[in-house]
Amino acid sequence: MLEVPVYDIQGKQVDTLQVDENDFGGYVNEDLLKQAVVAYHANKRQGSASTLTRGMVSGTTAKAFKQKGTGRARRGSMKTHLLRGGGHAFAKAPRDFRKRLPRKMRHRALKSAILAKMLGQDLMVLQGLSIAEPKTKALVGLLKNLKINRTCLLALGDRDANVYLSSRNIADLTVRTAGELNAFDVATRQKMIVTSEAMSALCTKEAE
């Protein structure tokens, strides 16, 4: 069993949660986690870069000047990649970088990412998170109380408009609901805060 610390909004540890690592796969599947992160990175790429080859460039095909007698180098097409305004030698074309990751693999990768956070003592459970009105200062104070000054992922049980609005100006904080979590978000943030409601949802989901 793993022991996950439980904190209040003042940053004081008030309890310890016992979590069975077998509910999260039992071990961290590093190969699958790496594959998931690469897939999420690839799927975020637009793949819309496009440049012109010499065949696509508009311009004359006439020879610039005669072959001999000018004292200059022999010059063919003015659309060559060697000249300004010419085409590219190895032109870029739109392409699809997407990598398919089946649902079961995504689910297993998320388990491994969360388990890695727990094993590395980078995951904490938060009790009593409530923001009456959108204020960035409230979340900044919470992070300060929890002594978090790195990239952080905050997992909520349900959508909370005030929390989302309060987090928009904090560059290193990402807010997700338990149902929106994915391996990429978990693995690429150094710390993870999970509300009590979100932790209950995750443990129930993993146990099914």
Q: Count of DSSP E strands?
A: 6
Named CATH architecture of the largest domain: 3-Layer(aba) Sandwich
Name the poorly predicted regions. Answer: none
Structural class: alpha/beta
CATH topology of the largest domain: Ribosomal Protein L4, Chain: A
Strand content: 15-25%
Overall pLDDT metric: 90
- The number of helical runs is 6
- Strand order of the biggest β-sheet: 2-1-3-6-4-5
Q: How is the main sheet built? A: 6 strands, mixed
CATH class of the largest domain: Alpha Beta
SSE string, helices as H and strands as E: EEHHEHEHEHEH
CATH superfamily of the largest domain: Ribosomal protein L4/L1
- Distance, first to last CA: 18 Å
- What count of structural domains? 2
Question: What report would you give on this structure?
Answer:
- The protein has helices spanning 30-43, 103-119, 136-145, 161-167, 183-187, 196-207; strands at residues 2-7, 13-19, 123-126, 152-156, 173-177, 191-195.
- The protein is an alpha/beta fold and 208 residues long.
- It folds into two domains: 2-45 and 100-207, Ribosomal protein L4/L1 (Ribosomal Protein L4, Chain: A), CATH 3.40.1370; 46-96, no CATH class.
- It has a six-stranded mixed sheet, with helices on both faces.
- α1 packs across α2 and α3 (136-145) packs across α4 (161-167).
- The chain is elongated, with a radius of gyration of 27 Å.
- The two termini are 18 Å apart.
- The mean pLDDT is 90.
